[in-house]
Structures are given as C-alpha cells and as structure tokens.
Amino acid sequence: MRLSESGIDDIERVLFSGLEYGEECADLIMVLGSKRACDYRVPKARELFLSEKANRILLCGGRVQKTTFGEMAEWQAMSMALNDLPSESVFFEKDSMYTAANFELAKPIIEKMSPEPKRILLVTADFHMRRAILLAHRILPRYEFLPCPVSKGSACRDRFRLSQKGMSRAIAEAQKLVMYAKEGLIDDIEI
User: Fold this and answer.
1) pTM of the model
2) Which of 6, 13, 119, 127 has its CA 20 to 30 A from that of 20?
3) Helix, strand, coil shares, percent, the chain, to 5
4) How far is it, in rounded angstroms, from Cα 71 to Cα 91?
C-alpha cells in the first residue's frame, strides 16, 4: 500500500499530535512493557523519578520475551534495569500480555496506592502512546494520565517516514486505533 503525503501526515497527526510531556509532576510513573522497555522506557522512568516528577514507579508486563537481560518477563527485565532505585518505590503488574491488560491488571494496584483520583505519568513508545492513553482513560477514568512518550526505534515520530519498517509499524498502529474505536474499546477521537 502506498500512501499520499497527506495520508502520511494524517498518520503522524493521529499517532503523535498533542502527546508531548509538559514536565508536570504526578503521584506515579507507569511504564508499559515491551521486549526493549528496559533499554528506553525505563531510562525515561528513572529520569522522571530522579528529577522528582513522581515518587513511585509501576512496571507493567508479564509477557516473557528476549530482553537485554535474557529471556524473562517484561516486568523482571525492567526491574533489573531499575535495581539501583529504592525497592519500596517500585511496584509490579506481572501478568498482562497486551496493552489493555496492562491497565486492567494494574487497576487494583493503582487503586490501592492512590484511592483518590491522582495523576499518573504514562511512559511508552511515542507511536504507541495514543492507543495507550485512550485505553487508560477508558479503563481508569478516575485518574489523569499524562503522556511521557519515548522516541526510539523505526516507528518513532522522527523516523517512521524513513523506512518501510517504520512506515508499516506506524500504519499498523493507526489501524489498531480505528479497530479499537469500532469495537468500542476506546473513544473515537478527532485529531
């Protein structure tokens, strides 16, 4: 499939527009898992923690994958990457296998930590942030999620136009947004 330049601009707008981090503080940093989360999402979470943007981190992801630290669950690899932080500040959601489950299974953990509605800094890849934030709003509507996107890999905002792999991943993510909206998993949005 070949997209026109305006089609590519639409994908960029849908995936990335308005999802910049504004340096706000929150009560919790939530990091979504992936096989490379310990390489680029966790450093962002560490940076936020050390700059006192939030005093707790929740690592999410139970999928066993080949990570930088070997084959293990996402949360374990991310934990290893944060082993120098105080253990009482790091929490785990250990069972999720996909993005919606990150929020569904983290819900009781978050509600126990913060029973009153609070702010949560959400850390994931920039091309994945729109879907993640919309799922967060649907599954945990009492909480304010603030996007903290990380630009890394072929599908990031600055690189997706440069390769077929990046373009394919960006298109697939945009298609997931359409599918999720049609299935009622997220609110339909206008960008």
Assistant:
1) 0.93
2) 6
3) 45, 20, 35
4) 21
